[in-house]
Specification:
It is built from one helix and eight strands, in the order H-E-E-E-E-E-E-E-E. With about 150 residues, it is an alpha+beta fold. Strand 2 and strand 3 form a beta hairpin.
């Protein structure tokens, strides 16, 4: 009878140990999942905050450029936590921005315009900007305002 009592107590102890192990695993998995969700969420939030003043549509004017390039828009967006964008250049249509760099209020990127790269640099001043577009033909002053 005493052996049966010890056997039952031992099985109960094993059962409780198995439950404790399962609970620890569930706690660990849920903790890792919550940590992952929080970290990825903050990453996107930080990117959004960092580029908040830049994201949107900016209308530019380049009075010294050839007529078809004098007016257009720069559109900056956040996609999967990364800053992306494209330029609508006059009647040409849309070209993607490459190598977008933002350092406080300074913005620079490249666009491939009809097979030639154009380097665009500007400084944001509240809801406007002043800068230049440098192509193989030379530097052209740019000005612009934020639309939305």
């Amino acid at each position: 009878m005493y052996i049966l009592y010890i056997y039952v107590k031992f099985n109960i102890l094993l059962f409780h140990l198995k439950i404790i192990i399962i609970m620890k695993k569930l706690f660990l998995i849920s903790s890792l999942l919550v940590t992952f969700v929080l970290l990825t969420g903050f990453d996107k939030t930080e990117s959004s905050k960092k580029y908040k003043k830049l994201v949107g549509t900016w209308e530019y004017e380049a009075k010294e450029a050839p007529y078809e390039y004098q007016k257009g828009q720069f559109v900056f967006e956040i996609s999967d936590g990364d800053l992306t964008g494209y330029a609508k250049i006059g009647m040409m249509g849309q070209v993607n921005m490459e190598n977008i760099l933002v350092n406080k209020k300074n913005v620079s990127f490249k666009c491939n315009v009809q097979g030639q790269y154009v380097d665009i640099d500007f400084v944001i001043k509240k809801k406007s900007f002043i800068g230049s577009a440098v192509s193989p033909g030379g530097a052209i002053p740019l000005t612009g305002i934020k639309l939305k």
